[in-house]
From TrEMBL:
Start-end of each WD repeat: 82-113
Lineage, opening ranks: Eukaryota, Metazoa, Chordata, Craniata, Vertebrata
InterPro entries named in the record: Beta-prop_IP5PC_F, WD-EF-hand_domain, WD40/YVTN_repeat-like_dom_sf, WD40_repeat_dom_sf, WD40_rpt
Name of this chain's protein: WDR64 protein
Stored SMART domains: WD40
Length: 174
């Protein structure tokens, strides 16, 4: 068993039941780290979902890591990030049978998303029925203008290893 905790600095810590830190995760995104406000897993603990103060949802694949945390080949991989709300996410859960994520925000909205690709399916209180089978249309809620970002492992490593040099140059004329 592993306990996950979300933190103000945007980090997720995974703890053993003895209280030892097993792993520390920092979301990989083009946005600076923001406080995480909600966490959940699916029933089979294959994925970990986190919601942020800025309305983002992030999804990690954790199954292989949980099977053997000591094996360095079994890494936790962030797979997807999307903007679910324009304000803080206060709760979220994954409904495994329908493969949807339900998110709630401090603005009072409760929205439904496809768990695998972050596509918007609708909101609670809408006049039409949810169409869970049609995920071909990529629509967004009115207050969100960013499409879901699929995070590829290659780009993650490239970003980490990118080195910049900013040599100081003395210009006597200035």
């Amino acid at each position: 068993p592993v306990l996950a905790s979300a933190h103000e600095n945007g980090c997720i810590c995974l703890w053993s039941i003895q209280g030892n830190l097993v792993k520390e995760l920092l979301p990989f995104s083009k946005y600076p780290s923001v406080p995480l406000t909600a966490l959940c897993t699916d029933v089979s603990t294959k994925m970990l979902l986190a919601g942020s103060k800025e309305g983002h949802i992030m999804r990690w694949r954790i199954a292989s890591f949980l099977e053997d945390p000591k094996n360095s080949k079994n890494q936790i991989k962030e797979e997807l990030c999307w903007r679910a709300h324009s304000t803080e996410v206060v709760d979220l859960f994954h409904e495994e049978e329908k493969n949807v994520v339900v998110t709630a925000s401090i603005d009072g909205s409760v929205r439904l998303w496809h768990a695998m690709n972050g596509y918007y399916l609708g909101y609670f209180g809408q006049p039409r029925k949810f169409e869970l089978s049609d995920i071909s249309r990529l629509i967004l809620p009115c207050d969100v203008n960013n499409f879901p970002t699929i995070i590829k492992e290659e780009s993650k490593h490239m970003e980490k290893n990118k080195k910049f040099e900013y040599p100081l140059m003395l210009d006597r004329d200035k």
